[in-house]
Every structure is written in structure tokens, then in C-alpha cells.
């Protein structure tokens, strides 16, 4: 073991460090939460999760524990835009102007599409997010990026939430969202279309951050051999994101818990 005789005897004389049951429980919980997040929880978010579970910890202590357990988060890479506008289609006005914080649920939804690579080829994911709670209320994944892809995601969201008329649906100017078929679908649901400006990457920043988390905090951590495996893994992340992942915009609550807190206060359902 390449240890000197004097070093060995010095180690024998040194008193053993006792780890308390409370500290051991903290270590186990930190390791489990880090594994559950696929190694994506940094010390700030880890501190919030632990406090939510009743641990009395500060960020410095959590950072020390994570360093001791060699738990390190890998850095993300930049998000890349996938959709492009078909110039013969109509474009809706920008009704939001980067105001991503509606005051009630089902007031403003946002949608976008991203690409996902598997061992069998590309897949495309369309989501619908309620900007009030950051909850993904509808999504659809397929091997083709068509208007049907975004249409099916919207159908799932509508069936789940049954929103009233006047809801604003925000998207980029991709051909799927500017198509006559999709505009007709929005009109049928009583929704108003809103679209960002060309080249303004921050106009749909909340959804783009979601895609960044999905890919770099989850999907890229494991091999995605088949399209079916990718579908199941995306579904697993949707459950984790909606039920477990904390958001600073939600007072450090998950999207589902944030909506539940509103139900208790206002009776919204």
C-alpha cells in the first residue's frame, strides 16, 4: 500500500472519527437524491431538497458533504434552436414580450420542439408548459417533426386541463406552429396565438431551459439505444420534473406541489 512503517504506527495511534447516525443519514440521503437526479443536483438545489425534507442544513455544509462524497455535476452546453418558419404562413403578434409569469394557472401556455438522438435515429419532442407553475401539461414524441407532433401535444394538454377560452399559447415561428392546421386547432380551443420575434433566443427562455435540463441533466447521462427506450426515459423525466424538481420561480416547490399550494389557498382545481 506504499505506506511507511512510521506512518502506519502513527495511524494506529490516531483516534477513529465517529460518524453519528444523523450524519450518516444525511450522507445516504444526499447520495440518493443525487442519483435520483442523474447527477444533476448542485449544492444549491441539493440544499433546497434537503430542507424540504426536514434537514437543518446550510449550503456550505451541503457543499462540504458533496465534496466529501465526490458528487460533482457536469456542465451543460448551449441549447440549439430546431424549428424554422415557413414564410408563406401567418405569424401571430407577440402578446407576452418576455413576461413569463402569469398570475393564475391556464392563463399562458408555451410550446416548443426539440430533437433527441437515439441509436436508431432522431426523435422529436413537443411540449406544452403552463408558465404559471412551469408544469409540463402535455407532450408528444415521434420520429418525425410535423404539425401532428405539436398538435398531439396540445390535444393532451387540453384534455388534461380543460382551460377556459382566452388562454394565450406562446411559441416560436416554426412552420409547425404557423401552419393553418395548428392555427385552426388553437381557434377551436378558444386560444390566442402569440409568437416571439425572429432570432430572439430569450423569447421562449423558460421552455428552452426545460429542454436544457431534460437533455444535459437526464438523457445525456445514459445511452439511448432505441426510440422506445428514449420514449420511456422522457416519460420518466416528465414525472421527475413535474413531481420532484424544485423551481425558484415556484418558491422552491415542484410544479405539482406549487399548484397544490394554490388549491389550498384559493380553491382552484
CATH fold title of the largest domain: Nucleotidyltransferase, domain 5
Question: N-to-C SSE series?
Answer: HHHHEEEHEHHEHHH
Give the overall shape, derived from the CA principal axes: elongated
Which second-level CATH architecture of the largest domain applies? Answer: 2-Layer Sandwich
What features would you highlight for this structure?
269 residues, alpha/beta, Nucleotidyltransferase, domain 5, elongated
Q: How would you characterize this protein structure?
A:
The chain is of the alpha/beta class and 269 residues long. It has two domains: 5-69, no CATH class; 108-263, Ribonuclease H-like superfamily/Ribonuclease H (Nucleotidyltransferase, domain 5, 2-Layer Sandwich), CATH 3.30.420. 42% of the residues lie in helices and 14% in strands. Strand 2 (121-130) and strand 3 form a beta hairpin. Helix 3 (43-52) packs across helix 4. It is elongated. It starts with a helix and ends with a helix. Residues 101-263 form the Integrase catalytic domain. This is Putative transposase.
Quick recap:
Helices cover 42% and strands 14% of the residues. The protein has 269 residues and is an alpha/beta fold. The protein has 2 domains: 5-69, no CATH class; 108-263, Ribonuclease H-like superfamily/Ribonuclease H (Nucleotidyltransferase, domain 5), CATH 3.30.420.10.
